[in-house]
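Q: Could you fold this chain for me?
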Amino acid sequence: MSTPTLEAVLRDELGDLSTDHRDDKAVIRSLRRELSEMRQQLALMSAYRNMAYRDFLTGALNRRSFDERLREETARAARTPGYSFAVVLADVDDLKLVNDTLGHAVGDEVLVGVARFLADNVRAVDLAFRLGGDEFAILLPHTDEAGTRVVVGRLRAAFAAARDQLPFPVGLSLGAATTPPSPFDVDAILERADTEMYLDKRNNKAAGRRASNGDDETVPGTPAALAGSHRNAA
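A: Sure. Below is the predicted structure, expressed as structure tokens.
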């Protein structure tokens, strides 16, 4: 049996190396494809998750997101001495009047405008949500009772100044609850904020009635005022 020449041995070794190199490149290409597919799947999952936590009309965080974050904040306050947070509920006054007088498309524009206003007028750490219909909420982490009153006061003043920039000048009723002193219970917190919000709504309606005794056609929120605003906007 003849002994392989050095040239033959080297040729065989180089052939094996070339085959191994081609195999490695094929594995790398396969891994890159798998990585690209995984990235696409993750991006799709992130998009679906974002859709699940966003209100379709306004783009604001939705009720599902609010419920989860509220439970998290309530649990955090219960286990962390000295920690407080607040919930502000906001209800758009006379949205039904807008829908009935000018149509739901205009009402949707109002809701989008209110959502934008809330997002633009809260702190960076705060979160604004649309709960559904004409109801919105704001979650204020790291906020005590005094701080909550400051935030609500600023929102009222800012909305009074900005309402004419909305598609139509609706009102906004606000109610807040801070924990503590509210119990570490989601339902109790919402009930307190809701009670305060409806008291504010009642006061707003009373103020509107008093104003309408002078000149109903110029009172924001009345059918005549809304129709006039619609004509001016057109």
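A (continued): The helical segments are 6-52, 63-79, 95-102, 104-120, 145-162, 186-215, 223-233.
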